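Side project, low priority. Logging it here so it doesn't get lost.
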Amino acid sequence: EVTGLLALLAPENGICFAALKRLGPSELSALSVLSCRFRRLMDDPTMDPFWARFYGHHFHMTDKDACQFIHLRPKQIFSRLAGLSISGKWHVTGRVTQMEQEVENAYGYIQFFTERERLSPIESSFEGEVEDDESAFLVEGKMVGNSVVMYETITNHSNVPIAVNICSGVLSLQGGFMSGVWTQHNPSSSRVLSGTISSGIFEATKLTDAYGATSPETV
């Protein structure tokens, strides 16, 4: 049966590329170990669109990545994206760019993220928390490729929600740096967003991963 499958999917057979379009990343990777012929096929430039379709617009090349990863092929990009995890201890800094009231413009804090579920090779849900002297953040988020979206509920010491942050960011391909923007809104039990109270930008550097190891980008 395996021999028949190999013959059916042989590159010189016209059905090959039609069949490959129906395969996912795990199946394509498995084909690579079946024979040298398939290994060469998986590394051929004609396969680039097959790998690029798995991440599409969910991959963003950051300035920090450009010099090191600009020449990556789609299969290599997919492999990098599949290896990303937001879990760990992060140092977050940023500044407020718009606010109705005068506030301290710059800010910084330590934030913890934990991957909750791996939904696909490049898609995961996560949660996080921040605690400082005045309030606490409870975070729910999703990462697809290296695009990150977070819903942050800010509570006071009585655990009463006082604001909601919506954050959108991009994770570097090394997994140790993230940057993005946020908007802040009044809390709502229905999660219907009010008008923007304030907005800003942020950068985050991973200090340690989920196992306590130091991130390469902090060394």
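Brief comment: Helices lie at 2-8, 15-20, 25-32, 36-42, 48-52, 63-69, 74-82.
Revisit when time allows.
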